[in-house]
Amino acid sequence: MIRPRHFTPNPETALDNAFQTVVDPARAEEVASSAYDEVTRAAERLAAEGVTVHLFDDEDPTRHDSVFPNNWFSTHAGGRVAVYPMYAASRRTERRADIVEMLKAQYRVQDVVDYSGLEHDGQYLEGTGAMVLDHMVRVAYTVRSNRANPIVLERFCTQFGYEPMVFDATEDDGTPIYHTNVLMAIGTSFAMAGLEMIRDERRRAEVAESLAEPGREIIDLTSHQIREFAGNAIELRTPTGRILALSARAAACLTPEQTAVIEDSCRIVRLDVPTIEHAGGSVRCMVAGVHLTRRPVLAPVQPEEAVLGG
Description:
Number of helices: 9
Strand content: 15-25%
Shape: globular
Number of strands: 14
Structural class: alpha/beta
CATH superfamily: L-arginine/glycine Amidinotransferase, Chain A
Strand order of the largest sheet: 3-4-5
Largest sheet: 3 strands, mixed
Order of helices and strands: EHEEEHEHEEHEEEHEHEEHHEH
Number of domains: 1
CATH topology: L-arginine/glycine Amidinotransferase, Chain A
């Protein structure tokens, strides 16, 4: 997770992110301070639930969206890390070598696959924002958008062993969905998805069937619930079981029946992040998951006792 000192909704990304809201520039310091506190409390709450949290501060005043690290890198079982090309030029400096080096130091990383050079060719794929990855059946669900180039997607899927499932999704007024991870979240025993926003009925049925394939229960979210960020959730493992982390706003819009399905297999952890949601993302966007194997902690070598000869 990234805790920014200078958070503000990014004017450049607002061009195709209809989930963003305008913030009065006169409130810039207040907004930045609130966002910093929200990340701090969210990280503390996740840690209290048993989640290992690596929290990095960001002091750069030009990185408006650095609170959303899942867009520029992802990690994968088997020791692989992917680094992604970003659509908005203002976001490209969010990529941080110190984070990659931390991963190498604390986890077994065999390979870092860097796609960021494709930005020079106008090709973008914004990580697990543009894709929602089903690790169980190896499907990469992807809404068509400026942030998900089909050539980069195909290359990623070939190298990391996923099957791409690409579809169109729009809001009620026809505005395209900008990132797949505001539309759906995949858990172990359930999947939450705004299926009605996939307007092609045949493709909607195919996506629903694929999501349900491992025996998951489908929680069909309304377009209103998607706007409330109910689809922008993430399942995390803890020593005492799985949790579903989502915003307080998202949790409040779920029906009792939907909540019951989630609670059959997860504890719901509500995080209060209303300031950050002004930037068009929520809890899922704030968390870059670690799917790597931790390096063993070696005991310090004890010096041998000196042998005195006589």
